[in-house]
Amino acid sequence: MAIANTSAKTETAEDETEGAGDQAQPPQLRRRLGRADLREVPEARRALRELLRQWGKPGRSDIAELLTSELVTNALVHTDHDAVLTATVGPRGLHVEVRDFVGRRPRLCVPIADERTHGRGLVLVQSLADAWGVRAHGVGKAVWFDLDAEAA
User: Fold this and answer.
1) Which residues face 143 on adjacent strands?
2) pLDDT tens string 95-123
3) 96 neighbors 72 (Cβ within 8 angstroms)
4) Cβ contact 122:74 at 8 Å
5) If we measure between CA atoms, which residue out of 9, 25, 12 comes closest to residue 91?
6) Are residues 84 and 45 in contact, defined by beta-carbon separation less than 8 angstroms?
């Protein structure tokens, strides 16, 4: 699947049915996020909300939106590069990853009380996701999380 050249373009696997034959692809969102463009955060949430309209128990898509916005924000604030958001709905649930092009791994830290907006993103991911992690790529890394659709 091609990644769009502009940050405004979003693709889903459902849009690419031509040539797919009888093999159904899982619903997927793939979106390029522009370097340091924090307008991408609400756009990523909107696109994920659209993907997850019929997914999971009540509240699961809200958690997915929150965690996705944390990963997108981290990638855009802590790197000086574009990033790529991929979300896939499969039989086991939702898998979301944000890939950036900086090898430096994120650090999980305890937020300091007087730092109102910093240091809480990965703590939220760790607390609310069913699984999460960081995977190295040839250039950069992907920070990911999984949510089970049926978990309470």
Assistant:
1) 98, 134
2) 999 999 998 888 776 666 665 666 678 99
3) no
4) yes
5) 25
6) no
